[in-house]
Amino acid sequence: MSKVRVGFVGAGGIANVHLQHVSKNEMAEVTAICDIHEETALQKVKQYGGAAYTNGDEMLEKETLDALFISVPPFAHGEIEEKAARKGIHLMVEKPLGLDYQTVAKKAEVIKQSGIINGVGYCLRYWETVAKAKEYLKDKKPTMVRGHYLSSFVPTPWYREWKKSGGQLVEQSTHIVDLARYLGGEIEQVYADMSLQVHRNVPNIDIPDVTSLNFVYDSGAVGHIDSTFAQFDHRMGIELFGEDFRVVIDGGNLTILEKGADTMNFKTELDVYGDQDRLFIDAVIKGDQDLILSSYEDGLKTLAVTLAANQSHETGLPVKVSDLGKLVMKN
Ligand SMILES: NC(=O)c1ccc[n+]([C@@H]2O[C@H](COP(=O)([O-])OP(=O)(O)OC[C@H]3O[C@@H](n4cnc5c(N)ncnc54)[C@H](O)[C@@H]3O)[C@@H](O)[C@H]2O)c1
Fold first, then answer.
1. Is the pTM above the cut of 0.85?
2. Is the pLDDT of residue 330 over 50?
3. Which of 14, 65, 106, 132 is most solvent-facing, going by the fewest CB within 10 Å?
4. SS3 211
5. Which of 44, 59, 71 to mutate to test the pocket of ligand 1 (most atoms within 8 A of CB)?
6. 133 plus 145 within the same structural domain
7. Buried b / exposed e across 192-230, counting CB within 10 Å, b at 16+?
8. 317 and 173 in one domain?
């Protein structure tokens, strides 16, 4: 294949990171950039090249694209994934995949049937430390997992609205939920408490700023994730315990402790976005889905856990993730 012709839908914060990496990749070219905000599209085209659009459908109609990066807010996905997949355009979609389980599950089916290469922006999977942790854990059984995503307020206007972002767990802390699944196994049941404590005076806010999530793996292991944007700095990490071992990921650091053995320490130097985007382009060129660490179908499973947690918050009851067919989003 000659250069991979890449289109972009959504050209805001994270798209800028993808645009930087794709524009530097000699196996790819920025062919078109779409943003509903015309000035944003024009400015990015000036910076990275390609043709500017304000309508994704029009871009798909007029351009010949091999791959598409979708970096729109959670509420704004529309039908772009299905439309691109039906045209055979390979997809890299930012997390979270959407806000409605059934809608995203239908997209996953169309993507699967189309046979395109597909990835989701669960970039932490590409950390070298996460790869080392996964390798270490491959023959081990975690019995308890505890994670945290503790950060500050995100001023982006759509973030604070439940109907647009799905709240912090769906939108941000989903990265830690994803690691809990990637390293610990499938989550069967969740129970969540959430509350708006600190940011009550932010105009238009209706999402909780503190969340406590409990979950049970299908192995019977248990887990917990703390999530907040009521802090002044940013910390995130996860610990997985089992009989005589502990795996601790604290930001970019990994520590593996084992009873009777020397402690192992690793630090990640990797640029996760760069690696993720390069592997996606490689996967498109080689037609090799295995190069991608988070497929669309897998991203749907992480979304399901976070949506189930939201449902638990609404009902005050534990929710089985497999019962999501009955999920009704809060509105
Ligand atoms: N993987 C990560 O680490 C990471 C980091 C940041 C953001 N994200 C995710 O990326 C997504 C976007 O976040 P962001 O911070 O870039 O948001 P943003 O608000 O900065 O940018 C979103 C852009 O999409 C545009 N847009 C909205 N609807 C559109 C549509 N229908 N067609 C074309 N353009 C449209 C907006 O005008 C805006 O420019 C979110 O889902 C977020 O969770 C992921």
1. yes
2. no
3. 106
4. strand
5. 71
6. yes
7. bebeeeeeeeeeebebbbbbbbbbbbeeebebebebbbb
8. yes
